[in-house]
Amino acid sequence: MQPKQTILLVEDEQEPAEMLANFLEMSDYRVLLARDGREALDIIDKEAGDIQVAVLDIMVPHVNGKEICRVIRKHPVLSDIPVIFLTAKDKEKDEIEGLELGADDYISKPASLKLVKAHIESLLRRQHPKNSKWIQHGSLYLDTAGKDLYSGNQRIDLTSTEYALTELFFQNPKRVYTRQEILEHISGDDRFVFDRTVDVHIKNLRLKLGEDADMIKTYRGMGYGMNRDLIN
């Protein structure tokens, strides 16, 4: 079964927001609805790997649609997704500024539900499939195609061994690995390594993770793995 495409919808007017969200869900989309900018940013932090398109009302409380668009365009996972602005009628200035910020389209309010859906589907058809495969845990994003790790918007510079460790843990977040299993994963044909080498690599990886260091947990008497209390 084809997974549903996910839409981030940011709209503070309750009735239009619920009507549009329900209509899109009936059209077999998954909708993440935010009523203000802070809620939208929280959804981005938690769900970035699943969002395929963003529909943003410009005038929402706390963090407006323009700022949300800026965050999306700088985000390692979301930077190339289609963004549609919902603007008040005859607000040409907002439309121009939105396009300059990197929005792909704009729709003047009020707009019919079918019109919004048509714009979304048009942009999704033009969107090239992503080559990247993202795995997210907390604020960390692993790009298994590009071999990169990000914390929020910041790329973390890893050695090849540190990346191999990270990928092993991210792809199997509920498993605990012994030192020997980790050694076999990272050493390749080189068998002349010591099990304490793993401890050094784990220590260096945690240092690079900074505030996210707790994502890698030591299971005493067992080995290492993802912190099950922190993973999604």
Quick structural gist:
With 232 residues, this protein is an alpha/beta fold. The protein is built from 8 helices and 11 strands.
List the SSEs and their pairings.
Elements: E1 6-10, H1 14-26, E2 30-34, H2 37-47, E3 51-57, H3 65-74, E4 83-88, H4 92-101, E5 105-109, H5 113-126, E6 134-137, E7 140-143, E8 148-151, E9 154-156, H6 160-171, H7 179-187, H8 196-209, E10 216-219, E11 223-226
Parallel strand pairs: 1-2, 1-3, 3-4, 4-5
Antiparallel strand pairs: 6-7, 7-8, 8-9, 10-11
How would you portray this structure in words?
The structure is a single chain. The model has no long low-confidence stretch (mean pLDDT 84). The strands form three sheets. Strands 2-1-3-4-5 form a five-stranded parallel β-sheet, sandwiched between helices. It has helices at 14-26, 37-47, 65-74, 92-101, 113-126, 160-171, 179-187, 196-209, and strands at 6-10, 30-34, 51-57, 83-88, 105-109, 134-137, 140-143, 148-151, 154-156, 216-219, 223-226. The chain is 40% helix and 22% strand. The longest helix has 14 residues, at 113-126. The chain folds into two domains: 6-126, Rossmann fold (3-Layer(aba) Sandwich); 134-226, Arc Repressor Mutant, subunit A (Orthogonal Bundle). Helix 2 (37-47) packs parallel to helix 3 (65-74). It has eight helices and eleven strands. It has 232 residues and is of the alpha/beta class. Residues 132-228 form the OmpR/PhoB-type domain.
